[in-house]
Write a structure and sequence with these properties.
This protein is α+β, with helices and mostly antiparallel strands. It has 11 helices and 12 strands.
């Protein structure tokens, strides 16, 4: 019971006692009692109003706090969505895409508002995917190509207390993954083909040698030499495959040091000198004798061995030049030959595994078809780059840029 009622009751009882004691005070007592009662009612009403206002103010503060929390979470969600590196969108229960990021908007051929699930501004295949996500209200996964990019699309329904509340649309770029799978399949096919060719030759010659009554000595000697050649070629292919496998798995550890490039080229040339002399080729080293390069000496030795061997294969009675200089923080090295050159249409594939601009010539030379692929992998491991330029009939130039 409020305090005002207690006081009112006490005063009323007191007046009643006075009236009983002195009757003339009856009228005055009635007036005073009524006035006091009204005053108490007013005070009680005022206290009730104050309590109600206090509760309303507390409720208003709570609502304001909740609104601020909701607004903050909305901004956080929007910030997250906008900064996602892949296309993302949020679709509501009416099929409107209420929240999107820039990568997703690149799917939109023409901006429109509101952006609905069946809008004609989407690519037909994408529109069909979004439409199915809206209609089925279930998880969907689909792969397709948009704007020359392969995507794995996900539609994930969102539920609020078991009621469908919308759908999340995500598109993950899987171009590199698919390209890696395609390269792996091509690599396996090419490796099988490259190993099958010498193996078939060996088996064919062995079959002839094992025929009863075979006694052709010159042919036997020739076949033995060819079998040895093909076996060495298979060994070279397997060794190069092992190197490329390690490079692909990023298991090659580099031990970079500052080395004398002039001496490195000389050490590469020394075992190749008889081959140069046999073909009538000359090597020129055009660089300062104190020219240095930073890298793993063993790996760089393999790089220049492969490049000089490659140049030697296609240069008859010509010149192979190794030139180097420092340019803008890089050591730029050129390997220039005066050989047959490389056709323009083949130059962009020249570093691919097993690619051959002239297949018959490569096989005749006993190469594995992996030498230039290894060169590029080693150069890339050094955070460098390699390019090729060539004019058919005039030779080729391989240019390597390695950070100083």
């Amino acid at each position: 019971m409020p305090k005002g009622w207690v006081w009112s009751l006490a005063i009323t009882l007191g007046l009643m006692v006075l009236v009983l004691v002195w009757p003339p005070l009856a009228a005055v007592g009635v007036l005073i009692g009524g006035a006091l009662h009204v005053a108490v009612l007013v005070q009680t009403q005022k206290e009730s109003t104050q309590r109600l206002n206090a509760r309303l103010e507390e409720a208003r503060k709570q609502n304001s706090l909740q609104e601020r929390n909701i607004a903050m979470k909305s901004r956080q969600l929007e910030t997250i969505v906008v900064n996602l590196p892949f296309p993302f969108a949020l679709m509501d229960t009416q099929g409107e895409l209420v929240l999107t990021n820039d990568p997703f908007m690149r799917f939109v051929e023409k901006e429109t508002s509101p952006l609905m699930y069946d809008s004609p501004v989407f690519h037909p295949e994408l529109r069909a995917f979004i439409r199915n996500a809206f209609i089925k209200e279930s998880t969907l996964i689909k792969a397709f190509n948009l704007n020359a990019t392969d995507y794995q699309a996900y539609a994930v329904p969102v539920f609020d207390k078991s009621r469908y509340a919308g759908c999340l649309l995500m598109f993950l770029d899987i171009t590199q993954i698919l390209e890696g799978e395609r390269m792996q399949k091509r690599f396996i096919a090419d490796a099988s083909h490259e190993l099958r060719t010498p193996l078939s030759s060996i088996l064919g010659m062995i079959e002839i040698l094992n025929r009863s009554g075979f006694n052709d000595e010159p042919t036997r000697v020739e076949f033995q030499i060819q079998i040895e050649t093909e076996a060495k070629r298979m060994e070279a292919i397997i060794q190069d495959l092992t190197v490329l496998s390690r490079l692909s798995a990023q298991k090659v550890m580099l031990n970079p040091v500052r080395a004398n490039l002039y001496h490195l080229i000389e050490s590469v040339y020394r075992p190749l000198k008889p081959s140069f002399e046999a073909k009538g080729d000359q090597l020129r080293i055009e660089m300062d004798e104190h020219q240095t390069v930073t890298g793993d000496v063993e790996k760089l030795h393999q790089v220049f061995t492969n490049l000089l061997t490659n140049a030697l294969k296609f240069t008859e009675k010509g010149t192979i030049t190794v030139r180097a200089s420092n340019q803008a923080g890089y050591c730029v090295i050129e390997v220039i030959d005066t050989g047959i050159g490389i056709p323009l249409e083949d130059q962009k594939y020249i570093f691919d595994r097993f690619y051959r601009a002239d297949p018959s010539r490569h096989r005749a030379s006993g190469g594995s078809g992996l030498g230039l692929a290894i060169v590029k992998s080693y150069v890339t491991a050094h955070k460098g780059e390699i390019t090729v330029s060539s004019v058919p009939g005039e030779g080729a130039t391989f240019t390597i840029k390695l950070p100083m």
